[in-house]
Write a structure and sequence with these properties.
Elements lengths: L11 H34 L8
Keywords: Membrane, Transmembrane, Transmembrane helix
Amino acid sequence: MSKLTESKAGPLSKDIKAIVLANVIAVVSLVAFAAMGMGIATVATGESLFQGL
């Protein structure tokens, strides 16, 4: 019988954790920049962006 070959690739869990962490950082930074932009727009126009809600 031939010996089964073993994969030399590392575990996927570390790669998945790195991808999820990068995506979480990206989403948090997008939310922060959106909030900052809305704050600047509110100060510049003097009107609340949520006035029509």
